Structures are given as structure tokens and as C-alpha cells.
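Hi, here's the filled form for the chain we discussed.

Project: internal
Contact: R.S.
Residues: 70
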Amino acid sequence: KWRFVILNIGSNHGVRKAGELTVSRSGRYVARLKVSSVETAHSIANVMDDYDADEDGVQEGDEVVAPNQP
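And the returned structure, exactly as it came back:
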């Protein structure tokens, strides 16, 4: 709904400003994020319009990983 999310991962977890992250739920692709702000333990990211695949959007409890991670 708001097109941005607050994540409980930050620079301590390797998140970088302007980096891209993938969101999945139960092994299914949900969305792609672009990081706009990073602190040590949390970050804020915008949901990329071209990559919002799930009609329910990003939800609490979804898994977030960097695209280059397994």
C-alpha cells in the first residue's frame, strides 16, 4: 500500500544504500526493493514498480535477501 518497507536489517548485515533486495514468501518471489536509507540495524527500501509480483504486497515476516545470495 505505501510502496516502502522498514527492514530489520541494516549495514551490520551488509545492506547498502541504493542496493537492491529480493523479497520472498514460502519460497515464492514477492517483490524487489531498492534501499533508500540505511542505519546499523535497520533500513528503509522502496518497492520497485516493475518487480511487485505479489498482489498482497510485501508483508511482515517475508524473507529479504540480496540478489547475489543463495
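Let me know if anything looks off before we file it.
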